[in-house]
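Thread: quick sanity check before group meeting

JM: Hey all, I'm pulling together slides for Thursday and realized we never actually wrote out the predicted structure for the chain we discussed last week. Dropping the sequence here so it's in one place. If anyone has concerns about the input, flag it before I start.
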Amino acid sequence: MPVGEPTDGVQMVKKRLRQYINRAAFNKLLLLATDLLLGAVAFVLSLLLFEEQAPVALGQTAALTLAFRLAAFFGFKTYAVVIRFIHLRDVVKLALALLLADVTLATFSYVVWGKFSAAIGITYFTLSLMAMAGYRALVRYFSVEHEATDEHPPIRLLIFGAGSAGLITKHVLEHAPGLSYKVVAFFDDDPLKSGKTIEGVRVFNVAEHFKDIIRKNGVQKAVIAIHQLLPERRQQFIEWCLEAEVPVMKVPPLSQWYEGGFNPAQLENVRIEDLLEREPIRMESPHVRETFSGKIVLVTGAAGSIGRELCRQLAHCQPKQLLLLDKAESALHELHLSLVEEEHCHQALPILADITDAASIAQIFERYRPQVVLHAAAYKHVPMLENYPQQAVKVNIFGTKHVADAAVRYGAEKFILVSTDKAVNPTNVMGASKRIAELYVQALHAQGSTTAFAITRFGNVLGSDGSVIPRFKKQIQAGGPVTVTSPEIVRYFMTIPEAAQLILEAGAMGRQAEIFLFDMGQPVRIVDLARKMIRLAGLQPDKDIAIQFTGLRPGEKLIEELLLQQENTQPTYHAKIRIAKNIPQLAMQDLDFSLQEFQHMIAENADDAEIVRLMMRLVPEFQSTNPKFADIFAQKNL
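JM (edit): ok, ran it. Output follows.
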């Protein structure tokens, strides 16, 4: 190819650019010519209506009218619009151009010829504006209708929110390239808007007729476009949509809108978290940032679901160094990459280690000297640990001991243990092992350590690794059935960000090995959760996806303990966090002997029953519901 010769690609771009420029110029010229033609028709009609008041120099007046209007159109660029996206401000600009031209003509006529007909001038202006605005409206209407061909009919939308956000949502979705949406109804709680229309779309607010609105308007999807909406109202609207088999989306928060508006790509499907039967808990305590800013922070179990969110939130606190400890190599690697690339946390350092290795943990503390330790590493699956009590002891009890001992030995300022509601009156090995871990941390504090300890307890975390949400999603994607242990089983739920916030707040507040509890509202029936998830997937429970009850698993409770009881807690500076009081504790000397027994059992590979018997001795309230350990529980109560 000769030097300097344009490639085929460049020639194609130039050709398309010329085509676009020519087409754009033609469209502008066509609109300008149409406006002048409509103006001429309006001028003739005005003269016919008021023939007796016609100007003396008719030809000169017509020529001046054309000149003044042409100049005004160029001055205001009334032709430089895309009619498909025309806005009210474009019509206002057109009206100002016509007004300026006609006022100039009237002034000139009066000064030069001493005569001007106000009736003709007003009629001429009015007819011109009506004709030109009407032409634009018709072109816009037919161009939008033309986009929705019979082969690709638009998706019919209902928008919840007839305010500014709802109107912006309508404009964006109806005019976004590559999309085919048509807003057919607004829904709003404001009674003053009920029955009115916005850009030709009616506003409804009669809740009891919601299904009729959906049916009569052929609604296929709904969008929530209200930013300040009470959680219970949002949930009610979502429930209505799910019952009517209409998928629900929502616009992002205002803080995430791009350059004052939002992009259709930002639309989010409603998630199960949006159906929590309480208002999401948000905390913005300055104490949290002060606690972690500029500090060396260690997170164990960093690659787990809660550990990952903890690390993300800690990255915003700008720690001096963020140590990520986990034994899952791939997950740890992915976490480190995401923190560096997405959160720009270059002070994050992955540490591949196992908390059951006391020597390795001691070396890590000696080398890095963490000032704050968030201990989230644990085994947590109830049915699994019922079969492997020895692993529960190794990880949940001795793993906690190794990390807590190292924190004290190497002068850490704070140690926060992430515990569970299952440690309250435990009925399973997992809960009992976490309760013993709590007892050890409290005993360590009682010895007079300079390290400040804190313990957090909360219920099930939506979307965490191994929780019911990912399992239900997989079962729904596979076509069912969705398995639930019992129709009566209920649980308290919180989101992963809420869990991480509680842990960080406890880190800021904790001093005396207190147990911090979260107000998680009312418990949720698991079967109701399953039904909502099926509907969110656009399917019908018991019709498209079956729900199968499998019976309670060994060690599983029907109803988890209610953590937040006023008489057993005391308040903190945050209304949603309380501190448990009157919690039984053990002295270190009482624990030491039992821990030595555990070590001996592990070394001798003792029977599961022997390990559970020792757990029951340490935690008297431990009442196993596993038939496998029924004899031990019966002997304990003799």
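AS: nice. Confidence is low (pLDDT under 50) at residues 1-6. The first strand starts at residue 155 and ends at 160.
JM: adding both to the slides.
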